[in-house]
Specification:
Chain A: Pfam families: HAAS. Chain A: Keywords: Membrane, Transmembrane, Transmembrane helix. The complex is a heterodimer of chains A (169) and B (125). In chain A, helix 1 packs antiparallel against helix 2, helix 5 runs antiparallel to helix 6 and helix 5 packs across helix 7. With 169 residues, chain A is mostly helical. Chain A folds into 2 domains: 56 residues; 86 residues, no CATH class. Chain B has a 3-stranded antiparallel sheet with strand order 1-3-2. The chains are: A mainly alpha (169), B mainly alpha (125). Chains A and B meet through helix 2 of A and helix 4 of B.
């Protein structure tokens, strides 16, 4: 079985995903994927034939990259959830112009942002864009609207809640 | 199992090498190939095949190259291919050459000792 551009692209996307799941740093992902593609470009092999399935190949590299411990992930999630909750409550308090638990909405907003900084940094480090070491360009295209939607969703939830409260009142 | 004949001994080179043996010698063989001249993955695989180690798949070869690099025995850099995608070239570091010399000597001692423990197939019939 020989490689077609589609099988190589599919393999790339799947391999990036599985390396992400193994928490491999972005620059190593770029190297690993470029090695696979450069190799099969020479041999004409199907990537899965030469390297095994993306899942198995990504797993075979786990002794090279240790996953962060589980408590690290749990801490990130708990801090992120707390930050989201505080920012949401703060935003509601500001929009409705009334304190929450006796304190100003701005104070809750600021607390939420402060709590959110460490998890945002940790997530940001894990989700850095994967660059192709051969060209310096992104390996996988992320649509522009993806980041936009990511921030839009929580803002939309708060705004919808605010409007709902105003209507009910 | 068929008996060990001298004819079969010749065939051993390709078909009957257990993967454990390959795994043991592969890092050193890869390091030797790179130490000979700066080269890239596919060329290393071709050298190993020409040397009788059979087809070494990319999924086996690149983790070995990366391990050697992580250990400081190799360095790598991407170079532009001719009209194609780039190739990752590997070069042996001084530590890599030193490691290769010491481990090769140890390997030869080890195989000589192992040899003395095993029956000689040429004398069994």
């Amino acid at each position: 079985m020989s490689a077609t551009p589609e099988t190589v692209t599919d393999y790339r996307q799947s391999l990036v995903l599985h390396l992400r799941l193994q928490e491999v740093p972005a620059d190593r992902i770029g190297e690993i994927v470029a090695e696979v593609e450069s190799h099969v470009a020479e041999t004409g092999e199907d990537p899965a034939e030469a390297f095994g399935s993306p899942r198995d190949y990504a797993r075979s590299l786990t002794d090279e990259h240790r996953k962060p411990p589980r408590w690290w992930t749990v801490t990130t999630l708990v801090l992120a959830a707390a930050a989201g909750w505080l920012i949401g409550q703060g935003a509601f308090a500001v929009l409705l112009d009334e304190p929450w638990l006796g304190r100003s909405g701005w104070l809750w907003l600021a607390t939420g942002v402060a709590v959110g900084i460490p998890p945002a940094y940790m997530v940001g480090r894990r989700s850095r864009e994967v660059l192709d070491p051969r060209t310096g360009r992104p390996l996988v295209r992320t649509p522009r609207w993806a980041a936009f939607t990511f921030y839009l969703i929580p803002v939309a939830i708060v705004l919808v809640g605010w409007l709902a409260i105003l209507v009910i009142r | 199992m068929t008996s060990l004949t001298s004819n079969r001994y010749v065939l051993l080179m390709d078909d009957d090498i257990p993967t454990e043996w390959l795994r043991a010698v592969l890092p050193l063989a890869v390091l030797a190939a790179v130490a000979e001249e700066d080269t890239y993955g596919y060329a290393v695989a071709q050298r190993l095949q020409a040397g009788g180690l059979g087809t070494v798949k990319g999924g086996t070869l690149y983790p070995v190259l990366n391990r050697l690099e992580a250990d400081g025995l190799l360095t790598s850099s991407w170079r532009e291919g001719v009209g194609g995608p780039g190739r990752k070239f590997f070069a042996a570091t001084p530590a890599g050459r030193d490691h290769l010399a010491r481990r090769s000597a140890a390997w030869h001692t080890f195989t000589e000792q192992a040899r003395s423990l095993l029956p000689d197939p040429r004398s069994t019939r």
